[in-house]
Specification:
Number of strands: 12
Radius of gyration: 25 Å
CATH class of the largest domain: Alpha Beta
Structural class: alpha/beta
Order of helices and strands: HHHHEHEHEHEEHEHEHEHEEHEE
Helix content: 40-55%
Strand order of the largest sheet: 2-1-3-4-5-11
Strand content: 15-25%
CATH architecture of the largest domain: 3-Layer(aba) Sandwich
Largest sheet: 6 strands, parallel
CATH topology of the largest domain: Rossmann fold
Length: 339
Amino acid sequence: MGARVTAADVAERAGVSQSAVSRVFTPGASASAATAEKVRAAAAELGYRPNVLARSLITGRSRMIGLVVAYLENYFYPTALEQLSNALQARGYHVLMFMASQTAGNIDDVVAEILDYQVDGIVAASVALGSDLTARCRAAGVPVVLFNRRQDDPATASVTSDNRAGGRMAAEVLLAGGHARIAYVAGWEGASTQRDRETGFRAGLAAAGRGLHARAVGDFHAGRAAEATRTLMDRPDPPDAIFVANDHMAIAVMDVLRGELGLSVPDDVSVVGYDDIPPAAWGGYALTTVRQPAAAMIDATVETLLAQIEGPGGAPQHITLPAELILRRSARIPPGWTK
């Protein structure tokens, strides 16, 4: 095996200074087009790759972002996280992904491991961080942005859709559809998204002088959502409409209603979800849902995180983006409403 090719070797081959080589391979640094072309050609001829770890020791920046996520079963997250990773890479950062559960001890361990990698920032998706964890990250100088979650700590940045407004939209479409017994399948009780969607939904019902007919918990899990559906429909007065806290569970709810119980959706029971994941638009489901503005949420997450990394000292932002009701065939379409 030959000796490792160095930046000095590339500089000599290209006929430029070693600092010019460094600028060409440093994201955000300036180098003329002619210099960059000569340096990259020389690097390709010699098989040179810049030593990212060595550079991080010099600059104090790893240009790595830790991404912690609790579960990937929900279609919303794999799609969003791929786009988030691509957006960060386009800005010269690389993503290290870590899986966590919702238990406090597990999240503590995962965040400690992330910090060991000397990341420049952390994005926590579908995970709630306690105040001790966020304080530890602040002490280490590592900014955190919560994606699709929020918490009361004003020092932790967050990006969400307007979950309360989205829940209210779900109530309004079901009320306008003439439903008499409107139920709710909740997500994991510890999630801000679950709490805000239910708060908005109940507020929408209350504005019309109505209350929730029945409630069950699906924990954002398809199997538990299916069991919740069986429980709701086993009542002597089963619901004729169900708002489900996310599409991942709503699909399981529809499968039970149609496949197990032989009911028609929406003739017997209307179903509304939240997220607008790709399967929601499939003909077999045609799920009426509240769409999260995923692309805008990703852009806001990247901008918020990098603003804290590249301009330390700025106040963390708490961004709420508008949601949109998407009408399809899983719920009665009220008179005068159009898809």
